């Protein structure tokens, strides 16, 4: 049938020719419809955007030009690139206009996650033209079970072929992230020799340091030669470097990490201090298990070089006690704004020296308004202290910002840590205090509360010792006798406390494990009522009580508390100490991320030829 006249095609033509004529007519009208839709799209609001703005949107979507959408790995924790690194390309297939804008934006194609498809890598390189490159690659080796990459013969993989193609453009690379589970091939090492005049960020990550040899050291040092003058960020993970022969005065960010007990790639603390002494513009420093463990753990050297780092803003140290003290004591950091310290190993013998070293770094951190203390006995991180300059709002347990000071201890008694922390750390101006721990000792709480006299809000979470807190709240000491009064004045602990919040705290024990009957003796509610009454009578009233997810609490106890406390807020929940349901760990709310839809490319909306388009044809998603 003729679409214009409504008449059938002439029956005089043979059937094959008639069929071909109809198919040609269908194709003609289909192309006409596509052209109409394309013209209609030009009137859409999104089409008003200039190509420059649309290109910027695409670059943010793709994480191009250093706009990484993945979590930063500057703390030494390896985070892979997106599992499907080029999934963002689907946005370029929505319509012809978007496709044209994407292909005419070389910077959009500068983010290269190296895959095994060399043809695809060369295509992306061509699209990037002369734009700077941001290269990320993780070279994995498939080895027979039980064999180590250290001794297994080296075989070039397709991924290395792709990497070699990209490294031939070293002069264009601005950021390079290279990870390997085995020794690098000689071809890759030669390509790493440089020069790399645009290189600003270098990340090298090896699965194990046992395979590092002098040959690899030499090539890494060539990559760090003086011609790489724009290098600002260096992140080394299990990489052996000759720090005595390394001069990088232009660095602003340095990360050096190893896996525990990788002695072959660790560096002596003295050599490391001499290396960073030259980095006067350093702003961020991360050191994790990278320093050689000393033979004598009980003595801290005092004749080390003093490294002056006037611009250092962030310092993160995860080392043994001796090396931590050496670093903190021999670095001058007047601009330090954030400090994280995690102690690996026993701290009993050097606890005093450790806190003294911490104290030297706190003046520049400012005045702390919030303090969070977490005590988890018999765990790897037994005691966790966080201090914030920012205060809490809406009775939150901690601010929504990062802590200015964070310290983790493992093998140390809570009383020892709290006592030393109270003596060394500037926490006397804290107004918001959170204490978390299933087992909280009276001596620990007393030591902490006596140092934080200005606290107005106290949050206690996950406490199972329901008989400890009330007794601590009514602790008082005899003060000076008033001139016109009889007897002595008493000063209660936390004299400015006005609000107490209890979250996930036990209010007592349950009598029968199969019945919801509560044990009548030693109830937290009874102790709280007594302490609130006593403090009110002596002029140290706690005005508010907030209860969130209490354990083994009765409604009758809530009513009794409301009769005594000025303001009682309860979230209405009652939990009992029974085994949690498996439903807590399984969610029924699944979601479809759209990666496996039939039409992820959007070809139906733009008329692109899927059979001739390399984006669609290549399996470039690993």
From TrEMBL:
Residue ranges of the TM segments: none
Signal peptide: none
Domain of life of the native organism: Eukaryota
Domain F-box, residue spans: 46-113
Listed name of the protein: F-box domain-containing protein
Species whose genome carries this gene: Rhodofomes roseus
């Amino acid at each position: 049938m003729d679409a214009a006249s409504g008449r059938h095609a002439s029956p005089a033509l043979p059937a094959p020719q008639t069929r071909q004529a109809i198919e040609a007519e269908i194709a003609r009208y289909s192309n006409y419809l596509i052209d109409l839709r394309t013209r209609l799209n030009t009137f859409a609001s999104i089409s008003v955007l200039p190509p420059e703005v649309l290109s910027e949107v695409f670059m943010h979507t793709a994480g191009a030009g250093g706009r990484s959408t993945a979590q930063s790995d500057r703390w030494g924790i390896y985070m892979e690139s997106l599992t499907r690194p080029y999934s963002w390309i689907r946005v370029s297939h929505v319509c012809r206009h978007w496709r044209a804008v994407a292909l005419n934006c070389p910077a959009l194609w500068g983010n290269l996650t190296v895959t095994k498809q060399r043809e695809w890598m060369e295509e992306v390189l061509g699209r990037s033209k002369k734009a700077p490159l941001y290269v990320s690659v993780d070279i994995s080796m498939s080895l027979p079970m039980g064999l180590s990459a250290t001794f297994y013969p080296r075989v070039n993989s397709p991924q290395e072929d792709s990497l070699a193609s990209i490294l031939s453009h070293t002069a264009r690379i601005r950021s390079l992230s290279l990870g390997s589970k085995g020794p690098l091939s000689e071809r890759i090492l030669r390509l790493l020799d440089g020069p790399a005049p645009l290189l600003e960020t270098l990340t090298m990550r090896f699965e194990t340091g046992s395979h590092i040899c002098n040959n690899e050291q030499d090539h890494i040092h060539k990559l760090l030669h003086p011609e790489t003058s724009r290098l600002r960020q260096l992140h080394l993970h299990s990489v052996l470097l000759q720090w005595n022969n390394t001069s990088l005065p232009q660095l602003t960010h340095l990360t050096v990490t190893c896996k525990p007990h990788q002695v072959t790639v660790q560096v002596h603390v003295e050599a490391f201090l001499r290396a960073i002494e030259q980095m006067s513009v350093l702003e961020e420093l991360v050191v994790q298990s990278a320093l050689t463990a000393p033979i004598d753990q009980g003595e801290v050297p005092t004749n080390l070089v003093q490294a002056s780092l006037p611009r250092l803003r962030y310092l993160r140290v995860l080392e043994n006690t001796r090396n931590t003290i050496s670093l903190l004591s021999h670095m001058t950091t007047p601009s330090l704004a954030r400090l994280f310290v995690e102690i690996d190993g026993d701290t009993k013998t050097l606890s005093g020296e450790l806190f003294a070293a911490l104290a030297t770094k706190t003046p520049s951190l400012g005045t702390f308004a919030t303090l969070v203390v977490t005590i988890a006995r018999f765990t790897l991180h037994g005691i966790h202290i966080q201090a914030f300059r920012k205060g809490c709002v809406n009775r939150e347990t901690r601010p929504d910002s990062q802590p200015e000071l964070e310290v983790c201890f493992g093998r140390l008694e809570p009383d020892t840590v709290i006592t030393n922390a109270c003596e060394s750390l500037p926490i006397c101006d804290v107004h918001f205090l959170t204490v978390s721990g299933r087992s909280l000792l009276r001596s620990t709480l007393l030591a902490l509360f006596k140092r934080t006299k200005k606290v107005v809000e106290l949050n206690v979470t996950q406490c199972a010792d329901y008989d400890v807190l009330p007794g601590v709240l009514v602790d008082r000491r005899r003060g000076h006798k008033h001139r016109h009064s009889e007897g002595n004045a008493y000063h209660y602990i936390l004299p400015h406390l006005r609000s107490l919040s209890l979250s996930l705290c036990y209010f007592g024990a349950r009598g029968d494990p199969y019945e919801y009957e509560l044990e009548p003796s030693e109830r937290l509610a009874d102790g709280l009522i007594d302490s609130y009454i006593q403090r009110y009578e002596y002029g140290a009233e706690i005005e508010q009580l907030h209860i969130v997810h209490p354990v083994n609490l009765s409604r009758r106890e809530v009513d009794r508390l409301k009769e005594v406390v000025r303001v009682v807020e309860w979230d209405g929940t009652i939990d009992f100490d029974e085994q949690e349901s498996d439903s807590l760990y399984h969610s029924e709310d699944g979601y479809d991320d759209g990666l496996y839809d039939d039409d992820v490319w959007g070809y139906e909306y733009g008329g692109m030829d899927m059979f001739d388009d390399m984006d669609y044809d290549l399996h470039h998603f690993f």
